[in-house]
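Item description
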Amino acid sequence: MTKAGITKDITLQEWDNIIIGSGAGGLTAALCLARAGQTVLLLEQHDVPGGWCHSFYLDGHRFTPGVHYIGLLGEGESTNNLYKGLGIANDLVFFRMNPSAYEHVRIGKHRFDYPR
């Protein structure tokens, strides 16, 4: 592997697991395997981890291409249990969707509000 002039040969024998891609699935798998005592090499071609779960700026505009809404976050619900099981629940911040209109679409002069 070469980066910034540093060369290192990576062999499968050095790692119990090699994960390609640091999207939500790759990060989750890496975390679970590492907590189980496995050595993990997580490879990502982008300079920011997170895959479709991160935002970026282009020409002064912010784009969030992937995850917008996450459900089942209530106490005892599956997504909440997943985040607690991963030990990251307290590191995440979520906001409730506006029940009367969380999504707004404008077509010409018309506005459509989508309720929760």
Remarks:
- The first helix runs from residue 24 to 35.
